[in-house]
Design goal:
35% of the residues lie in helices and 12% in strands. By secondary structure, it is α+β, with helices and mostly antiparallel strands. The model is unreliable at 1-14, 18-32 and 295-325 (pLDDT under 50). It binds zinc ion (ZN) (2 copies). One zinc ion is lined by residues 91, 93-94, 98, 104-105, 121.
Length: 325
């Protein structure tokens, strides 16, 4: 028999982005002179394994797409000194970045001062474990409630058979925990089926999408999305598989079989196509305006600054943008 262990240590930990392999100006130059480190192209992605295929050094046959900052630069964490892949966020509680971060470490559910807490972030590497933990806890609580309540009712109806107050407390707590966690499970089931996260679902800002037409890092357009758009939804089955794995027999067991490495996620094909078309339209508008005589009454299209490919080491992120950009 092994001991129960400490949940905060035994709970599978999320995966962090790799540290930047940069230490001098030459390395900075290599990064600044190429396309974003983490970007998605349908031509270089295997949707079955959710893995990026070996990156070719030649120009991609389809544009590369990634989430960027408002000025076109890669998302960057000043605290960790890491480039943040799409869907990664910095957690102040853990003082580190987490891939596909769902929520911060202080996961607490409190009822009348009774609370459970899951230490560590919930993200790409442990979302399945978190979901199963909440789901099974809710089902167990409901099972306790459903099997205990009839016994108590029968005991109460039988005169001269006093009921231990501990049974009353047990059935009340089982009722509260069961339905609260069941609601929590349903919410996260919805997130899994729509390929979303808690952070993304509460975001009220548009994404800035960078479309790179080659790997030079200089030939790209920056477009913004509508608010509330789900960028990474591939359909319910594919969304479920991406978190729970390809093997149905392992879906409901605590086996780590999440697909992909968490650095690159395939975009919704419709969103991808829409963004590429929007970028092309924006590019045509820029070209048209550059050919017109200088007229201040004509609105200019949004384009990244000339130095937008500089390595973002010197950029300053606001506290708000740090979480959701
Ligand atoms: Zn954390
Ligand atoms: Zn960070």
């Amino acid at each position: 028999m092994t001991g129960p262990g400490t949940p905060e240590k035994d709970f599978p930990q999320p995966i962090q982005p790799p540290p930047l392999a940069v230490a001098n100006e030459n390395d900075y130059g290599q990064i600044s002179g190429s396309a974003p480190m983490f970007s998605y192209s349908p031509a270089n992605f295997d949707n079955r394994t959710m893995q990026q295929l070996p990156v070719s050094t030649i120009s991609p046959s389809t544009p590369l797409m990634s989430v960027a900052q408002h000025d076109g630069r890669s998302r960057f964490c000043e605290h960790c000194q890491r480039i943040k892949p799409d869907r990664a966020h910095h957690c102040r509680e853990c003082d580190s970045c987490t891939l596909k971060m769902d929520q911060s470490s202080d996961v607490r559910l409190t009822i009348f001062n009774h609370s459970i807490r899951i230490g560590g972030c919930v993200g790409h590497g442990n979302y399945k474990f978190f979901f199963l933990f909440v789901l099974y806890t809710s089902l167990y609580s409901l099972w306790v409630f459903g099997t205990t309540l009839p016994t108590i009712i029968i005991a109460v109806l039988q005169k001269g058979n006093p009921v231990d107050v501990q049974w009353i407390v047990c059935v009340v707590l089982a009722f509260l925990w069961g339905f609260l966690l069941l609601a929590f499970s349903c919410i996260h089931g919805y997130y899994i089926l729509t390929n979303s996260t808690t952070i993304e679902s509460i975001s009220d800002r548009p994404y800035f999408i960078r479309i790179d037409y080659d790997r030079s890092g200089h030939n790209y357009q920056l477009v913004s999305t509508d608010i509330g758009i789900k960028l990474w939804s591939l359909g319910m089955v594919a969304n479920w598989r991406s978190v729970m794995g390809n093997n149905p027999f392992a879906w409901f067991f605590p086996i780590r079989n999440v697909l992909g490495n968490g650095f690159t996620y395939p975009f919704d094909p419709h969103v991808y196509q829409n963004m590429v078309e929007r970028a092309a339209q924006q590019s045509r508008m820029s070209t048209t305006q550059s050919q017109l005589p200088n007229d201040s009454s004509i609105p200019t299209s949004k384009s990244p600054p000339a130095d937008s490919n500089n390595f973002p080491m010197n950029q300053r992120n606001g506290s708000a943008s740090e979480l959701l950009v």
